[in-house]
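Bench notes, afternoon.
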Amino acid sequence: MKKLVLTGAAGRLGSYLREPMSRMCDELVSTDLAQDIGKLYDGERYVKADLASLDAMIDLLQGADMVVHFGAYGDEAPFETILGPNIIGAYNIWEAAWRNGVRRVVYASSIHAVGMHPKTDFIGTDVRHRPDTFYGLAKCFAEDLASLYWDKRQVESVCMRILSCAQVGNPRAIGTWLSYDDLIKLVQRAIDTPVTGFAVVYGVSDNDRVPVDNAKASFLGYRPRDNAEQFAEKIFAEAGPLDHQDPGNMCHGGPFAAVPLGDSGLAVLKVVDDTKKT
């Protein structure tokens, strides 16, 4: 491809996508709110831009073949905090894509769009929205926006409902882990699949205890390889018996299903910051 755009390039997940994406195109435009993102890869340039500015997104997406949209406020927060980057920002990405003739938006959605479903339900990609937070609600909005822009304006979208893309550190992650290698594979398949229309796929590795069903997204050719079962014995021993009445243990959204609206879910998860350094 001639040009790909990556939003959220300064974030933890974005840091692992920059190098492989730079090898898929002549020009990779990485963007975020940070002043810089360190050393750039061959063919990559960095543009500081605000998702909440439609004009900035229109300029950014000029001439792009596709945009991989990972930019967002990445945790539960009061609605006013979520509104700008996650909701208005999503509209600006799809609107800018349409105005510029961009073929496809590859979107970092989340399990939190369906996080209040019981974890004992093996849910598919067509399960109804059931957000667990304002953060999850914004993911529902963006997925519906993607569907609308496909139906009315023929902008393709692949909405990747990412489960737990971080180091395995709790019992839930034994089923929900998405390794960085599998994340890269998922994004590559979302980009290089010839035709997608509007599609939803779960971002999860090949875990023995995976709680979601990707059968209806098999056309993407995403075949994960990593398995969190290697961590199970140690993690379960350290955690001890879990409270079966705690929504954080019983719902797909984990701690996000248990925290009060507006309160951080990541604070409970204690995610390790292993951002890739260039």
